[in-house]
Amino acid sequence: MEHARAALSNLFGGEPKSYTRFSIARQMDGDNSHVEMNLSADDEEGGETGRPEHLHASMHPPWRIDKNRCFLIIAALLLLLIGFLIGYLSYRGRMQKASRCLDGSGNCEATPTASYLVDDNETEEEVPGPPVFYWPKLRGLLSDKLSALHLEDNLRQRANKYSFEAGQREDENVASYIHEQFTSFRLDEVWNDEHYIKLQVKGRSDNKVSILEDGKEEELETPDAYVAYSKSGSVAGKPVHVNYGMKADFQKLQKDGISLNESIIIFRAGRITLAEKVANAREAGAVGALMYLDPYDYKNTDALVPFGHAHLGTGDPFTPGFPSFNHTQFPPVESSGLPRIAVQTISSQAVGKLFRKMDGERCPLDWKSGVMGCSVIQKSTSNMTVKLSVNNVMVDRKILNIFGAIKGFEEPDRYVVIGAQRDSWGPGVAKAGVGTAMLLELARVISDIVKNDGYKPRRSIIFASWSAGEYGAVGATEWLEGYSATLHAKAFTYINLDAAVLGLNDMKISASPLLYTLLERTLKGVKDPAKDLGSLYDRVGSDWVKTVVPLDLDNAAFPFLAYSGIPVVSFGFYNKYEEYPFLSTTQDTVENLKMCVNLYPLMRAAAEVAGQIALRLTHDHELFLDFERYSEELLAFQEKFLLYDQDVKTLGLTLNWLFFARGDFQRATDALRIDIANSDRENRIVRRALNDRIMKVEYDFLSPYLSPKDAPFRHIFFGKGSHTLQSLLENLQLLRASRDSVDVNMLKEQLALATWTIKGAANALAGDIWDTDNEF
To answer: Keywords in UniProt for this one (predicted)?
Structure first.
């Protein structure tokens, strides 16, 4: 024991205190050995140090035993440290899933790379401790809590009401009711958003459609409905029927030598929006337009006249590109999408009378019109004209958007938005009531899961009730314009609930490619109310992506995608071969909708789809956005462009730079996928940075070379204008058909802007500036 104390004293507490140089010599004397140490240069030179010349001569023998004991102590300490490290790593491995679940969000999700690459049914390790929310459990809670009875109660708000016109009493009453409901659901924040807008409404006297013949005027109809943003006044012209009013229909008549200048165009509803039909009529030289519900497409609507708007755009057309707040005083300005021709809707009965008066060239058989005596133009000997008198007036209205939020526990400043239009011309049950009822039910159920069951979403969920949606997504667009500088960096998805139930047999889907994978998985997990064992996925089939419908201007999701660059999804039940006949009419009532569909089970199924998408986007570590989908979309366009490669070369141009940019985007998506796979999922800073890169994909496809005021819909895939890839393709097709009619400078600009928009998207997706490469 004394030897050990002496060794430790010399090692840890003994002298000398100064630095030394060691000269170690091992001597072997049989079984004994010792170490000789010269402590300093002074000793070597014979200087006095106050210590013996040989250290071993003054220590307790044997030094070998003391040394070995020291080595044993050090080895024991090292073994203890190694054991601790092994235990820690083992514990961390066992508890990794728990740390993912209990990192402050209360969620659990096992995702090795991107969320959309993981099987929903993959088994997850059960970890002892507080309850966690694996995705199957969360999905089950949502399904169990959604109630068809609650949906029915919410829809009763529309019963026996004639109109919910934007900014009027009924619209404001429903806004107050929604605000109260959001508050009663204990949402974290509830607030209003006011906008002061200009609407065109029906004047004191009815609009009128007349027939002028031989100096006599015969009234054809004075409809109750009207078309907002029509040009006011009276116009007259010869009537010409142009089927659905699509560009192809106009081109067919013009090819047949039928003049459309100074005419009154007649077209049937459907296929494209009323605003697009009117824009086509104006471009063809018409002075007025009439639209009706053809009985072939819309059954039992002979006397019905639909409401509509003719603004080729979204939002308030008198504040294009900027918000309609009360304190903004811009000089007078108008949207270029205003029609500047007179427009009115009429009944198919009135159109039948007009056709009998025309008695000219019959409609082609492939038009399949349901109106007897369908005529394209009047007989050549007739001097009959149609007179259209529009008395609409402009009014200033205050509208309210109502919001409620459930705040995320990890990233409260990132949110998914679920929205529905509240207003309607007429009862608007299918148009606005169904979506509003679903919005309230989803707010109730998701809040209950958070407040009572303990689910803690990573990100926030915002519930939005829009006003003035009937006039072209005015409320939604004004909100986007008001917060355009920040929303694209915070809102990562918009889920549209409007018109979710218009039929029984089929599903119609419009969505950003980023949400295709999530939507497909969601449909597989929601039961079809019409089939005991089937899912909604069975309705759309494995090739459902090929049937995705482009968003139109009347869809509130359109400005989110094309103006703000926010991924969107809009879906609903419908009948492929028979349109819901009462949309935007005075007959859009609860009773009529229930006669057409199995209403409440379908509403519940649609709400479950929307709720699952919202919850999945707030549940996973990584955003469930399939950023690799756009590589496929770009490749599809490249294949179409490649057909015109030689045509472009004859102009001394090349498509190679455009193709190289697409390749750069592909490499950027590959790099992001690898970065996600190699990242530390427990590091919130790293995870947030990766999610931000995913969020920006949609926004980066907005052309940065255009003014949002002059060309608000800048998305190169889904926008409107010459900057889009579709417009470039059409110009290439025109180049082959008629080279002299192509503006070569415009084609050069299209190629350049498309190339650098895609290249810019690739650079942004790659991450930090030192990870980008401007070389093609």
So the answer is: Cell membrane, Disulfide bond, Endocytosis, Glycoprotein, Lipoprotein, Membrane, Palmitate, Receptor, Signal-anchor, Transmembrane, Transmembrane helix
